[in-house]
């Protein structure tokens, strides 16, 4: 996150004890590189593999002496331009990783099978604007970060794939063009960086059986995508039905591909930066925050249907069995019931969203205001409850969206029949109401 860059570089700049201009340039380049590697491009979802740190260093070192300049006002006004040129230099000739296979196929193909390379074709434009002298380190870095984020939206690249063309054509090369790269902001006013969520935790490493399962999921997803595309082309199924089936299959493919490439049982659909900001603990005194902690664990594992679109398998079966259902079924409410039970909260212990709402009203727990761990009820146009999740963060952002964790959904927009547990950002206006958690 940018917050980590802000904290580390800011602390070092305030010390103002550079021994040489090279030391400052090396440090700034290193920290920018580390920050960018925590992001990914907007289309293929791959992080950068190798930025042009050498060129960035050279451009910084070509400036006038920087040592001890952290106390000189001219430093702050002149170096925004310099840093912009150096940032563009970093992206010149850069290469991204190829571990994440794009879920949307290359033009003219049915499905992507692998990625051969992913390169930056346009290093973008760094717009400095009018920069007045700034003598405060924090304000200087905030300005740089805002401009650097804007610059990331202008970067372009090409992802080269091996993709399946419509039969009888064999697999062949494809190209997916992408624009924009994203690094989460984080909290710039924090006194220290938020500890990163540990993706490489041994608890999440794939077992041999899980690896085989992921390989089977990937194979099945590819077969389903090809089959659905063919049926759509021959009008055996409607376009609407095809969209639903393809969305779930692409999601399953992306998850399986990520597992196989990383060896970790962590969902590519999970936004690690958002998980970093969910700090609740299963030992928290607040019942709602304990619910959030258990839901976060589910999103981190992640809990997924096995196979995808089956409404069954793995933890999903555990959730359903816990509410007395021993067959495939919609399971969003069963997941919420399970998390409430783990945290020690009252619940109707039901897989019915309607039962959850009526139970809350009877017990005086129905509310229009979100709190940590509250169950979220979504209703259809007729007002009937048809989906449920929990509030992970009740504080709305500038767009009026809160943070939720929901089961039986996907990583994109609203979906009440998806493949797993995901972190979401629903609009408050789309929510019917909240069920306040209460300790048993």
Q: Which class best fits the helix and strand makeup?
A: alpha+beta
Average pLDDT, rounded to a whole number, is 81
Distance between the termini: 38 Å
Radius of gyration: 24 Å
- Oligomeric state of the chains in view: single chain
Q: Low-confidence parts, pLDDT < 50 over ≥5 residues?
A: 64-77, 190-204
Number of helices: 12
What does the main sheet amount to?
6 strands, antiparallel
Encode the helix/strand succession as letters. HHEEHHEEHEEEHHHHHHHEEEEEE
Question: Would you mind describing this structure in some detail?
Answer:
The protein is 40% helix and 16% strand. The two termini are 38 Å apart. The strands form 4 sheets. It has a 6-stranded antiparallel beta sheet. A 3-stranded antiparallel beta sheet has the order 4-5-6. It has a two-stranded antiparallel ribbon with strand order 1-7. The chain folds into 3 domains: 181 residues, no CATH class; 72 residues; 167 residues, no CATH class. About 7% of the residues have low confidence. Strand 9 and strand 10 form a beta hairpin. It contains 12 helices and 13 strands. With 440 residues, it is α+β, with helices and mostly antiparallel strands.
